[in-house]
Design a protein that fits this description.
With 152 residues, the protein is α/β, with parallel strands linked by helices. It contains six helices and five strands; from the N terminus they run βααβαβααββα. It is globular, with a radius of gyration of 15 Å.
Amino acid sequence: MKHPHKQPKILIINGPNLNLLGRRPSQHYGTLNLTELESLIQREAEALNLEAVCRQSNHEGEILNWLHASLDDDTAGLIINAGAYTHTSLALADALEVVNYPVIEVHLSNIHAREAIRHHSMIAPKALGQISGLGPQGYILALKALAERLSP
Ligand code: DQA
């Protein structure tokens, strides 16, 4: 049997406008669309013996509901690109305060090299770490970091 143990479940949440990847400015977000990004994530997760559950929403409340549900299932880690909610959502920060698994914040673009309003992240204090500016590779590195932390 290839995977004798249950694979740790990693929730990957992409927030508002990330469904438009591939059409957003490529100098910030590259050229992959969301389906391609999620396939990349799935492939890497499989190689790392992780189960990846990829979700995207343009609704803050829906993201909150997913986070709440993740408290009571067997979610073992979270990778979140909260899009613009990163900079605005106290509600997201409050929800992340409650979760008891490692959280990695990812941004495709380097938010610190962009407009001042993007420099501040409401969720960074709740995250184990932040990866910003490495494009899709950020999600891969986040998966690797979680895999290492979750390995028995
Ligand atoms: C983003 C950066 C945010 O400032 C922006 O609002 C996004 C995407 C990124 O992945 O670089 O929508 O999170």
